[in-house]
Each structure stands twice: as C-alpha cells, then as structure tokens.
Amino acid sequence: MRVSRIIAACGLVAALGGCNAASDVVLAPTQTQTAALPSAYSIDKMVGQWGVASYRDDKDRPRTEAMARTHCRNPYVITKGPSDGVMMHVADDPKVYELTFKGAPNGKVYLGYNAPPGDPQDREVVSFSDNNVVLRFVDPEINTRYGTYVYVRCTQRT
C-alpha cells in the first residue's frame, strides 16, 4: 500500500513538473498578423457633417451621391476620437466607436478598429476626397446588408 502511494506521488510530481515545463514553451502563431502601414488619408478630413446614403450596384453610385446630399438636412456627424481616430458607428451596433485609417501592404486603405488592415470589421476605402468618401464593408455578409456607403460633406471644403 505504501509503495503504491509513493508511486502515485512520484507520478503526480512528474505530471506537475511536465505542466510547468510546458508553460515555458513558446508556440509559433498560427496566423501572421500584418501591421498597419501609414494611411494616405488624414483622419482629420473625416471630421465634420456628412450626408450619407448607400448603394449595392456600382451603376447606382451617382444617384446615391445625389441622395446623400439631400441628407445634409439631418447630417451624420463625425467627431475626433480621444486617440487620434474618429468616432463612428459600426455595423449592427448603435454605439459609436473610435476608428482609424490603416494602410495595407497591397496598397488598399481601411477604416476600422485597432486591428490588422483588412479585418472583417473594417471598411475598405473605395475613394476619398475632401468632400466625398466611399467606404465598402470588408465582410461580404455585412456589405450585402448595408451596401457601399457614400459620405458627401455637407459644408464643402475648398
């Protein structure tokens, strides 16, 4: 009986020692995370009042831009965030969050959380000027539901 307890105790010590040793092992990440590159666009140019509309078919973009202009009667207001981003809504959430521009190695620019560029929660910048911004959701399911957003500045910058 005493011998079996000693064997059990040795087994327990060996197992615990193995657990401790296993915690020192560094595992390689299974997915390479791409760090964001500097963006070609200034986050300050997103701050302001915008008329917003969306389209699902590229042929509807000019009509949608005109519709967005009419929404300046009740503009969507984008403010500066506390950490050098902008405060905007994200898909399926009524709260505003801080988002920022992120450059990607493929030359695309995304607007989203502090995550690698091209994250499913991001929006890809389709076009960008002082007075007109077009953003498409990266996640195909979200893009199908909400479409591609057109932001038209309510007070034109010169």
Polypeptide structure, described:
The protein has helices spanning 2-23, 61-70, 140-146, and strands at residues 48-55, 76-80, 86-90, 93-103, 109-112, 123-128, 132-137, 148-153. It has 158 residues and is of the alpha+beta class. The chain has one domain (43-153). It has an 8-stranded antiparallel beta barrel with strand order 1-2-3-4-5-6-7-8. A hairpin with a 5-residue loop joins strand 2 (76-80) and strand 3 (86-90). Residues 1-32 have low confidence and may be disordered.
Biggest sheet strand line-up: 1-2-3-4-5-6-7-8
By helix and strand content, what is the structural category?
A: alpha+beta
Overall strand count: 8
N-to-C order of helices and strands: HEHEEEEEEHE
The level of helicity is 10-25%
Radius of gyration in whole Å, from Cα?
25 Å
Q: How many domains comprise the coordinates?
A: 1
Discrete helix count: 3
Question: Residue-averaged pLDDT, rounded?
Answer: 82
Q: What spatial form do the alpha-carbon principal axes imply?
A: globular
Beta-strand content: 25-35%
Q: Which stretches are low in confidence, meaning pLDDT under 50 for 5 or more residues running?
A: 1-32
Terminal-residue CA separation: 91 Å
Q: What summary fits the major beta sheet? A: 8 strands, antiparallel, barrel
